[in-house]
Every structure is written in structure tokens, then in C-alpha cells.
Design a protein that fits this description.
20 strands; 12 helices; FAD/NAD(P)-binding domain; 377 residues; alpha/beta; 7-stranded mixed beta sheet
């Protein structure tokens, strides 16, 4: 790899706020294209927040483009079927016509990306928070230090200080429902007879609204998403109200007992962020800073990684950053906007409970291959 940019003969430099999936993807992809990159993480170490994650064809193609797909696939799982239950009876089984998808722990994916960033020579600064940015390419750290860059990437989440310090116009809202996301032992033997290698989306609307998204990550770990309305004090309680959940899903008691032990559990309402634009001057926003979305289509991380990777591709083709950023947004944003809209619609109407809801329209973002800029399947 060379550090000399093919357009100008000079090394271009990027400052990236946030070391989540979007920030790491942008850092690796830019570094592989000759940029010098400094990645800022406000915490004391690089680590993933949350529990499990779904990646579809679009996200897996990004991993392949970055050169980390093989590392990520080891220790992850593709269920034979995505099954939907209503009141504990199966209503649909979906296989997405062979479209690749994978379930894993967030820590597993984050660890692979962080290792790749280090191997590529990304400069990683922990205990380093970007509190302000300017379209001219300046970032200000919590320490008071000001840094100059050819590109600033705001990948600092739904509460982005890069975004808010510049004053991007935005709409933000939260939904009626929320999730408790947990990783627990699979307890497959204790669960007994059943197709426990499947993803099973279990819905109940009576006597109250509760849902469990049962998602095996590998042979040992299970990702549970426990959904309930924010107005339900028992369903939204953390640590979880064991009796409340076992009453509705008695066959899952072995794993729910494990879930009840987790004192660090957190209930999060679905948040959506929609901006007028994603770029200003030399600043680009990616991930939840730009387009936080409801998790109905499991595309929050996938779209974030696709957009971060596509940003690096655009900057490799267009010499002027001020020209490249609007071109990137024009190219990639419509896919994200449509995905965000459908995710919000599905969450508001609890549409996934009907089964067979992963229609071609719903799977548009999942089918996108950012490395070739085409739709597969």
C-alpha cells in the first residue's frame, strides 16, 4: 500500500469521530486507498456496544472488500430459515431466495474490524472525543486540541457532536416500542425438541404485546431481542422481569433464566434520524449520525458500513473532496432513505408479525453490492 494519493501526489488525511462499525469501515477503506487516518474513540478502549447483529449480502460484500470476511465468518451462523410465529404457532418460513445473511455477536464483528484497522496502520486514539467540527476540515477535541484534515467523518452515533456542532438540519423521533438486546448461552439441549438453529421471530399480542427475536450467533451464543412497548413497565424493565417473559414464552425458560441474570441489560426505544443533507464542505456523516433507523429490517449496521465503504470509493475516483462528497450522497442515499422508510413503517405497524414480510422491496438494501455498485439476487 502506498500513502501517495493518485490524484495529487500528496497524502490526504482524514479525521474520523467514532470507532463503531461505520467509523472502522471508513478508516480501513480510506487507509487502503492511500489516506492517512486518525480514528477517535471517546472511551478508554475499542469495544462494541450492544449484543448481536445481522449482516446481509451488502454488509458481507463490504467485509470482503476490506479483506476481513473470512475472519468474520468463523464463529458466526446462518440459520436454515427465518421463521415467524404468532401466538407460538409458525406462520411463515423465509429463506430469501438464497440471499446471503449472517448472525454474530457485535463484539466478534467489531474485533475483526479493529484488528484490520490496526494492521492497515490506522492511527487509533482512545480517550479522545471530537466535540466540534467545521466544514473547513477542522476538528476540536475535548482536550482543546484542534486538528486539520482534508476530510472529517462523523461516525459518532445518534447523538453526534460532529453533526450537531455544525448545525445539520434534522428530524429525530422515537417509536412506541423498544428492545432489550442480550447475549446468553444457547442452552440448546435444555430447550429440547425444536428447530433451534433457526431464527425465530416470536410475536404475542394478547394478553399484552411482547416479542422475542431468537437468533443463534454460533454453537455457544444466542442473541435475544426482547421487544415490548415503552409504556409496559414489566416488559421494558431491566434486568428483565423473568416471570413476565416466561409467562408468554414458557418454552424459552432456560435461556430467559440466563437473561434475567444480566445486570447490564438496557432497554432502548427505536430512534430515527433524518437529515436534510449528509455533507457540508469537507465533512461527511455516516451511520447513526446521519440515518439512524428502526431495526425492523436489521440494516442499521449494514447501511452504515456500505455508506462508509462507498465514501472511500467515491473519494478515490473524484479528486476534489468538495465535489466527491455530494456525488457520494447522491449515489448512495436513495437506497438508505428507502430502507429507513420501510424499517420505520414496519416498526410502527408491527408488520413483521404477519410473516413473509421480507419482500423484494424490503430486501433492496440487503441486495446491494457496494463493491460493484449493482444489485444482486
Amino acid at each position: 500500500m502506498t500513502n501517495i494519493n493518485k490524484h495529487s501526489g500528496k497524502t490526504r488525511h482524514a479525521e474520523i469521530a467514532g470507532a463503531g462499525f461505520a467509523g472502522l469501515t471508513a478508516a480501513i477503506a480510506l487507509r487502503q486507498r492511500g489516506w492517512s487516518v486518525r480514528l477517535h474513540e471517546k472511551g478508554p478502549e475499542l469495544r462494541a456496544f450492544g449484543a448481536g447483529i445481522y449482516l446481509w449480502h451488502n454488509g458481507l460484500r463490504v467485509l470482503e472488500g476490506l479483506g476481513v470476511l473470512e475472519d468474520v465468518l468463523n464463529g458466526t451462523h446462518t440459520p436454515p430459515t427465518y421463521e415467524t410465529w404468532m401466538h407460538n404457532k409458525s406462520v411463515s418460513r423465509e429463506t430469501f431466495n438464497g440471499l446471503p445473511w449472517r448472525i454474530m455477536t457485535r463484539q466478534h464483528l467489531h474485533h475483526a474490524l479493529a484488528n484490520k484497522a490496526r494492521a492497515e496502520g490506522v492511527e487509533i486514539s482512545v480517550n479522545s472525543e471530537v466535540i466540534k467540527a467545521a466544514p473547513s476540515g477542522q476538528v476540536t477535541l475535548a482536550s482543546g486540541e484542534v486538528r486539520e484534515a482534508d476530510l472529517v467523518v462523523g461516525a459518532d452515533g445518534v447523538g453526534s457532536k460532529v453533526r450537531d456542532s455544525i448545525g445539520f438540519e434534522q428530524d429525530r423521533w422515537v417509536s412506541t416500542d423498544g428492545l432489550i438486546r442480550l447475549i446468553v448461552p444457547r442452552k440448546k439441549k435444555e430447550l429440547g425438541h425444536g428447530e433451534w438453529d433457526n431464527t425465530i421471530d416470536m410475536w404475542n399480542f394478547w394478553p399484552r404485546v411482547q416479542r422475542i427475536l431468537y437468533s443463534p450467533c454460533n454453537d455457544e451464543e444466542l442473541y435475544l431481542g426482547l421487544m415490548a412497548p415503552a409504556a409496559d413497565p414489566n416488559g421494558s424493565r431491566v434486568p428483565i422481569h423473568l416471570d413476565c417473559w416466561v409467562e408468554m414464552f414458557p418454552f424459552l425458560e432456560p435461556v430467559l433464566v440466563e437473561a434475567a441474570k444480566l445486570q447490564t441489560a438496557r432497554y432502548d426505544r427505536y430512534e430515527t434520524t433524518k437529515l436534510d443533507v449528509w455533507t457540508k464542505g469537507k465533512v461527511a456523516l455516516v451511520g447513526d449520525a446521519a440515518h439512524a433507523m428502526c431495526p425492523a429490517l436489521a440494516q442499521g449496521a449494514g447501511c452504515a458500513m456500505v455508506n462508509a465503504y462507498s465514501l472511500a470509493m467515491e473519494l478515490d475516483e473524484i479528486a476534489n473532496v468538495g465535489d466527491a462528497l455530494p456525488s457520494w450522497e447522491k449515489r448512495i442515499r436513495p437506497i438508505t432513505d428507502r430502507c429507513q422508510e420501510i424499517s420505520g413503517e414496519y416498526a410502527a405497524n408491527r408488520s413483521l408479525s404477519k410473516g413473509n414480510m421480507f419482500t423484494p422491496r424490503a430486501l433492496e438494501a440487503a441486495r446491494y453490492d457496494p463493491t460493484r455498485r449493482v444489485f444482486s439476487w
